[in-house]
Every structure is written in structure tokens, then in C-alpha cells.
Amino acid sequence: MNSIIIASFSVLHGSPSEYAQSYFKSDQFDFDYEEFTREIGPVELANWSADELKRDIVIEPQDIKEYREQHDVMAEIQSTQKQYNREIERAIQNKDEITKQALMSERERKIGDIRNDLMDDKYVASQIRAEKEKKIDIYISNLNQRLNRLHDEYPYSYELTNIKTGKTVQYGNINDQAAYKKAYSKDKGYLTTQLLNSSMGDEWDKGFKQMNIDPAVFYKGTIIVPEKKLSEWQNYQDFQRQRTSFYVIIACGILSLVCLLFVYKFRKEWFQNHILHQAYRRLSIDIKLALWIFTIFLVLLVSVGTSSTVVSMSTNFNIFIELLFLLPLGTLLIYLGILQTVWLIEELKEGKNLREEWDTSAFMSAWRLLIVKPFQMLREAFSDSPIAFQVAIILFVLFMWGVGTSLVFTIPEMALVYIICVFMIGLPALFIIFYRIRYLNKLIVATSQIATGTLNDPVEVKGNSIFAKQATMLNQMKEGIHVSKKEQAKSERLKTELITNVSHDLRTPLTSIITYTDLLKNPDLTEEDRHHYVEVLDRKSQRLKTLIEDLFEVSKMASGNLELQKQRIDLTKLLQQALAEHQEQMEKASLSLKVTTPTEPLLAYVDGQKWWRVLDNLIVNASKYALEGTRVYVSLKKVGDVAEFVVKNVAKYELNEDAAELVERFKRADASRNTEGSGLGLAIAQSIVDLHGGEMNIEIDGDLFKVIVKVPLTI
């Protein structure tokens, strides 16, 4: 299989007509001969003498000017001064006045010589001539080396005479038996060559530009290729090997093609039952085409290199290693290419729905991602412009549409441009107009619903246009009204509960006071009963006083009228004092207190009395509502730049309330209100924490009740 492609590229690489004729009629020989005639002029025919070239050197005023610019007088003077100054400084340190004076005199003399030399035109001209003569010597040396290589590289013999000077140059014997011969004369045309070669180095620019040398010289004579030198000429032998290999490759390619057609005709199942066939069928159509094109490209790439290498018939070891790699790789690629070609042909014959496969292909997915989506983004970017700007552009498009329509009737040649503009600009603009009108109608309907209090589903937000922003604001208005209604309903419910709770909690001690007051009016009471009734009256009066004071305090905090007396307080010591005060109360309630506090002080800028009230309320709340025989966990720690105070306990009562409502006034976990308390403890704590810029959160997990208080620490 490899030989088929290699043969094809061998035909392209070297055409049959190239190898069907003699080497001396090939393009390769023409190139070699032209290179030889171009080189022989400056290398041998010119027969340059260094003395003659040096004699023709011309020094122009511009050369002197450029030399002075290149050799900066001040720079050389400064360099000389720097050199002598070190020596003079050393003589001064050694207090050697004689050496010092001698060095200073020598320095001034050399500086004077530099000024005189560079200002003297004769001196500068001599320096320039010396540089050019050096360049000429280098050029002549290069010519001699090139002449030796020329005779070794090319087998030509020649005898050529300068038409102008009559000088003849001969190399070899032109009377030998010639495999190739070319004569130059007045009738057949002279050999034209140049005597100077600018490619020999930068000596051309620096040494010969001002010389009076003819740009081109004409020669007559004969150039031959002796037959006896053909066996030694590498280019000729390479051509013969390449021609032989060319015909061998063509024959192998034809034979391989015949074998391949035979296999495809009589052994088609080899392709159909291949192990890769089923996996190939699962690929999308665009992937199959891409794989096929990529494989063919690699086949062509490898075959070009292989054919060039094989046709060259080089015996270089590196070429052998290259073929050892390229031939198996080319065979594998051609095999895969043939398999894919056969499979693609079979699928086309099966009549599959190529349109459906193409729509679901990876290419179409990429098309939608890279083309369609950016177009949509462009439309959205246009939509984000101010509405006045959008209207102006759309009106301009419609106006130009009308102008184009009229121009088509007057200038029919513009019909094609007009149609393209209609499909690319006009129709999309028309679509945008109707799309915006439809969207605007939706917004008008949604606004009417909000006005009547109908809160249906939110308006669909599409894109980033001004209408989309309006839809977003309408949805926010709907959500705000919905939340407001919920809050209003909640407020009404809490207000009713507040009135009920306040009346209950205030009426209970007040009823007791009235009852026991009436009992005290009985003149037949014993002193012991009278004393007991007075104690009850005192206790209920104190409770009523506490309820009223707490109610006023939480109201004052909620209104923001409470003034704080802030100072730096150690929260750790404050907590330890509060816990110590309630230790006995915890023990009576059969509760085990587990405390975790930091070893270092936690300083916060707070009102000490009010913060004590927070700690007191939370600890008292835990002692009242924690289940007997359980543990109450109290911790204080530093978290970042805040202090975090946590109280955790297992609730005595079932916590059915929303955690957020437990901080409402008169809310109590004891729904039957059998325990003492006003139901204001958490509300008061929440208000104090808020006034300090802190945060108080309640978490309920089954019967686990947890209060987390955070307050900023001082820096």
C-alpha cells in the first residue's frame, strides 16, 4: 500500500519527463551550470591582483568624515587621561614629584598627538587606506580558497577569452571527448559574468565600492564536461540512481494498486469484520470526516517525505534510519485511511439520515457554541443599550430598508447587496421589534396584576435588556408585597398573642393582690394568717412591679431610647461572676453546669450592667427551662475578632415554636405559663445585644436549645 502513495508522489516530485531524458537536459544540471558560470567570473576570470586593487583605492572626503565620527577624539582623550591619572595618583601618594611631572608631560604629549593625528586629513586617509588594503587581502584569500573548491565541485573544462582585453583563461583540455559542450561567440551569444562577488563578505561594502570596475564582462570560448570525469561527478551519479529508483517505484505502485483492488473486490469482509468497525460506527459523522481528512493529510505528509528519500537513493545512514521509521508509519496510516474510506462509502450506501446525524454532530454543537451563542450575546449587548438608542437604531434600519427598496428599482445591480442586507440586518431588526413588543405586553399585564393585588407567577426574565431589568424590578415588587403581607399577618398574630399574654401575666398577680386584700379585711383573722397574707401580697406586688419594669425596659430598648455607658470590660470575669451567683440555683434545679472559658482576658467595649443582664437572663432561662438531671453547657471563646458566648441545654418542654419567635415579647416555652417569669428575658437580651452591635441567634434541634451571642472585641 505504501508503494501506491510513494509512486504517486514520486511522479509529482520528479516528473516522468525529468527522468526520461539525459541529465544534461534536466533542471538540476541547468541550476548547477548557472551556479558555475556565476562563480567563475569573480573567482577565476577576473584574475585579480591585490596590488592592482590596492592601486585603484580612492579616498573620498566622506570617508574621512565617517572615520572621524567612528573614532571619537574626546573618547580617546578621556581614555588616555584615565590611564595616566592612575599612575599620577600613585606618584602623588609616593611623594615622587619627578615621576609625577614626567607622567603629566607624557600625558599631555599623547593627548596632543591624538588631536593632531585625527585633525590631519593625510593621517586619517592613510588609516582608511590601510583598512581597505586589509579588506582586499582578505577578499583575495577567499577567492583562492573558493577557486580550489570550484574545481573540486564541478568537472568542467573551459577556455574563455575576455572580449575587451583579449585575455584568455584556460582550465583542463577542451579537446577531450565531451559529454556536454557549449560554445560562446558573437553569433551564439557571449558569456556574461561579474568580476566582483558581493556575497564573499562585508569586504565588498568596505573595500570596493569606490573602485572603477565594470559591473559585467563578456567572454567568448567553450565550456565542456569531459566524459572521463562523469564517474567522479556526484551530481551526475545521483541523478542516474534517482532515475532508476523512480521507475522501480512506479512499477511497485501499479502492482500494489492491482492487489488492493483485488482484495476490495473479493475479500470485502476483511473490512466489514474489522475489530475497529463497531467503535467507528458509534462516532458522529463530523468526527468520522475529520478523522478521515486528518489521516489522509498525514498519509500525504509522510508519503512526500518517503518518496523524496526513496527517490534520492542516498546511502547515508541517517536516511536509512528515517526510512525505517517512515515506511511502517506510512503503511499504518494508509491502512487506516483505506479502512475509513471503505466504511464511509458503505454508510453512504446504507442511506442513513445524514441530516439528523449532522444536526447532532460535534461540529454543530461547536457551531452553536462559537457562532450562534456569540450572535445571541451580541443581541443582548445591543439590548442593554438605552431604549432611546435602540429605537433610534431600529428606526434608522427601517429607514435604510425603505431607501434600499427604492434604489433597487432604479439601480438593479444593487439587488444582490440589498437581499443580503435584508437577511442580515432588516429581518433581524424586524424580529427584535416584534420580540420587544411581545415582552412589553407581558410587562403591562404584570403591572396591572400588581395594581389589583393579584400576585401570580413572576414575569420571565430574558436577556439583559431594559425590559428584562423592568421585569426583574416587577418581580422584586411582587416579592416585596408578598413578604409584606406575610409580615403583616405575622404582626397581627403576634399583637393578639401579646395582648393575651400581657393581660394574663399582669392579671394573675393583680388578682392575687385583690383577693388577699379582701381576705385581710376580715377582722376575725389570726395573726399568723394575717402575716401569711401580707407575705403573699408583698411577693405578688414585687412580681407585678418586675413585669411592669421589664415591659418598660424592653419597650425603651426597642425604640432606641436607652443610653449605654460603655467601657472596657473583661467578658471572662463577668461570666465567671454571673455563673457563681447562679450556682446554687442550678444545683436546686438538679442541673450540672459545664463551663468552658478562655485563660486570657477577652476585652470588649460594652455597658457592664446591661451585659450582665444578658448573661443573667440567659443563665436564668436555662435554669428554668432545662430538663432536671441534665447538663447545661456554657462556653466563652474568641472567634476571629469577636467573642462568642454559647448556652446549650436540653429543654424541659416541647419546643414547637419557631426559633425566631422565642425572642418576641411574652413568648415562653412553657405554653401553660406555670413557671415564674415574664417571657421577656430573651427579648431583653436580644435588644441589648443589638444595641451593642452584636448578634444573637437561637438554634433548636429537637429538644436541644442553643443560644449563641457574639459581640465585637476591642483591638
TrEMBL record:
Name of the protein in its database record: histidine kinase
Compartments where located: Cell membrane
Recorded coiled-coil stretches: 74-108, 561-592
Topology with respect to the bilayer: Multi-pass membrane protein
Reactions catalysed, as given in the entry: ATP + protein L-histidine = ADP + protein N-phospho-L-histidine
Keywords: ATP-binding, Cell membrane, Coiled coil, Kinase, Membrane, Nucleotide-binding, Phosphoprotein, Transferase, Transmembrane, Transmembrane helix, Two-component regulatory system
Lineage: Bacteria, Bacillati, Bacillota, Bacilli, Bacillales
Organism: Priestia koreensis
InterPro entries: HATPase_C_sf, HATPase_dom, His_kinase_dom, HisK_dim/P_dom, HisK_dim/P_sf, HssS/ArlS-like
